[in-house]
Amino acid sequence: MSKKRLIDLYAYRIVENRPEFLLFKRAKGKIYQGQWRMVGGKVEPDETSWQGALRELKEETGLVPVKFWAIPSVNTFYEHKSDTVHHIPAFAAEIEAGQKPILDDEHTEYEWLSLEEAVRRISWPEQQRLLKLTESIITENEILEDWIVSTS
Question: What is the secondary structure of 76-136 as a DSSP string?
Answer without folding.
Answer: EEEETTTTEEEEEEEEEEE--TT------TTEEEEEEE-HHHHHHH---HHHHHHHHHHHH
